[in-house]
Amino acid sequence: MPLVVQKFGGSSVADAASIQRVARRVVETRRAGNDVVVVVSAMGDTTDDLLDLAGQITDDAPAREMDILLTAGERISMSLLAMAIDAQGVKARSYTGQQAGLRTDTRYGKASIVGVVPERITRAVTEGQVAIVAGFQGVNELNDVTTLGRGGSDTTAVALAAALEADVCEIYTDVDGLFTADPRIVPSARRVQHITYEETLELAAHGAKILHLRAVEYARRYGVPLHVRSSFSNKEGTWVADTAATSAEEEAMEDPIISGVAHDRSQGKITVVGVPDVPGIAAKLFEVVAAADANIDMIVQNVSTQRTGLTDISFTLPEADGMATMKAIQGAAETLQYSEVRYDDQIGKLSLVGAGMRSHPGVSAKLFGALSAAGVNIEMISTSEIRISVVTRADHLDNAVRAVHTAFDLDTAESEAVVYGGSGR
Amino acid sequence: MPLVVQKFGGSSVADAASIQRVARRVVETRRAGNDVVVVVSAMGDTTDDLLDLAGQITDDAPAREMDILLTAGERISMSLLAMAIDAQGVKARSYTGQQAGLRTDTRYGKASIVGVVPERITRAVTEGQVAIVAGFQGVNELNDVTTLGRGGSDTTAVALAAALEADVCEIYTDVDGLFTADPRIVPSARRVQHITYEETLELAAHGAKILHLRAVEYARRYGVPLHVRSSFSNKEGTWVADTAATSAEEEAMEDPIISGVAHDRSQGKITVVGVPDVPGIAAKLFEVVAAADANIDMIVQNVSTQRTGLTDISFTLPEADGMATMKAIQGAAETLQYSEVRYDDQIGKLSLVGAGMRSHPGVSAKLFGALSAAGVNIEMISTSEIRISVVTRADHLDNAVRAVHTAFDLDTAESEAVVYGGSGR
Predict the structure, then answer these.
(1) Which of A196, B80, B372, B377 is deepest in the core (most CB within 10 A)?
(2) Are A5 and A100 a contacting pair, CB within 8 Å?
(3) What's the pTM?
(4) In its keyword annotation, does this UniProt entry include Cell cycle (chains A, B) (predicted)?
(5) What is the CATH number of the domain that holds B366?
(6) What b/e sequence results for A194-209 when a residue is b if at least 16 CB atoms lie within 10 Å of its CB, and e otherwise?
(7) What is the pLDDT of residues B123-178, one digit of tens each?
(8) Is A20 in CB contact (< 8 Å) with chain B?
(9) Residues B324 and B197 placed together within one structural domain of the fold
(10) Residues of B in contact with A143 (CB under 8 A)
């Protein structure tokens, strides 16, 4: 019997009616002749409510206690979902991360999975039950509960699918799959039918919010086929697997070279002006930045002029890390010997992703041409094998995304998308 | 260093401010030179909210899933309390029932403790930490969470105190201790300073709501001294121990023979009229009642008249069991051969409790005299070694309690009590 792992995020189980709807889908999947394991997040705003409660107590909660607090949310959703499935006549049991054998390291709040020993889940499935597993949580070697951090429930689902050798891991969300661009910006964006892990990673890393980076990395490592689809319809969603094409080579040949256009408005840019252009100065700067715990993304160093022997270095980073990083650089002014440091949070980033661009020359030229024709100025550029990212002014970003989407023939006559949003945790 | 177990009910941790207040008390106790283990219930209405959610899903939730759902409440309160104590500069860690070694049988929803192996709690205390333990919950041999049913958090506290050989188990509530009567009915009721387990059991079994029967039984079996006190003040409360007096014999001699007057408005009365007065008929009736799962309390059988050879049997039981039991008796009409069965939910029960009445004759006479003088008719009577209970009309109950309280010299000039309520779960 095929084994399907289904993951439902917080918005899919926001209230009793939603839980009943999810239960119906699980029951249908079971009755269609599948073994089913379900991974579920906390209901709707539960996690925010719990964070708010903790905030009323202290600004500096011990991470271990915070994890105990937050994991209460999945206990509620998973037991309610088991009740709902049971009430529809299919046996269901819920399991915590600990009971499901999701073993992690001890980094509370951002634990990594170190092993999955899903004995109880295997037994439940063998006995014909639907197993409901709490997403986002595991247990460490001290027998303490841990949380996996952002995207944790997706990661739980993929890790269980890998350990159970599931036939597919279905990630349910509130849209029909991955799109060639955010339909709120590009109404003519179309659903991507097939996409590789690699491209999905690039999209997720550069602003697309449907799938979490960690989960996709895990899926790629263990070859877990993902099916991203809507919990509101029965339509096919987006399949994420090793190769974009499913079977026929014809299909692969017809595949567009570009999978999609991601955008990201959450980055800021720091420019360090007038740095002595001597060996080791960049290393020193990024040591300071690393010590401030900032995840930097793009880096550009200007060609220095012979005359002054000075250069400028710009880099982008999440806005949330902006102030702390600025402080760190200002604190190291003596070492770094720059003349000025500036912070700019009015930037936008556009990323064009597609495995096809490897073998298709001229993609960058086309991209830059489209942006130029749309009157969008490019401030920074970075590229990978299958991605080109550019930084623009924030208020030019929407225009830029639309122009590029059209230039690469991604538009469809009519959009399938209704809403486009994050997938919860 | 003395070891104190402190138990706080749901009303003591109803919101962030209450949790901060409880944290201050724990910190004071710790700084006064005690090791401290805290047992905590779910916040205020959490349990009711969760039950309500389950009710929106199904009327017939599997008990295992219901226990997973309900135990989310203590995860929230215990982690928040640990954060609050930590924020006040004292190290604290929270532990689930499973982590604290509270092992139970597998009767979900009403599990019994089968063993307490508090290794982690002992270790935490040895390392100078305050250990916060989730009340009301344990783990069974399947590694599934169970709940202990009503009064569960009190029982958790007493069981831990016994296993840890604590010097005292403090039960915090919203009143100053046990009173000679409910101060809402008898404003002149006074706080009981010392009382035996036995008397406390009788009081708890017959309507007093401050301490739960199971917890008192557990405390008696293991000789755990209980101190019932207010979480709103630092006043001494009521000490429950083997003997009413603490040390001096003089004190014992001065102790009143009566500890208090309990009342109970939650009972109903079933009267089976015209039952053949032959051997075995009562046994048959109570077999039927037992099959309906009712907890019967008082039973009275009229003396039958020689002429008819028929008798009437009345018994009291919780109102909640009334309808189901009536149905069961009606269903067995053929076997029981009665002529009529009646249900009466307008009854009240008054119980006079005191170890002193063992050696003091005339207690019943005084009780009946006081009720008669107050114009209260007695419908049923039952007695134990240290208790006399009478059933009256419900609307006579308050008058009856006041009359008896006065007759036995329990009144004080001024009441200490502010509020009188249940102690949560």
Answers:
(1) B80
(2) no
(3) 0.84
(4) no
(5) 3.30.2130.10
(6) bbbbbbbbbbbbbbbb
(7) 999 999 999 999 999 999 999 999 998 789 999 999 999 999 999 999 999 889 99
(8) yes
(9) no
(10) 99, 120
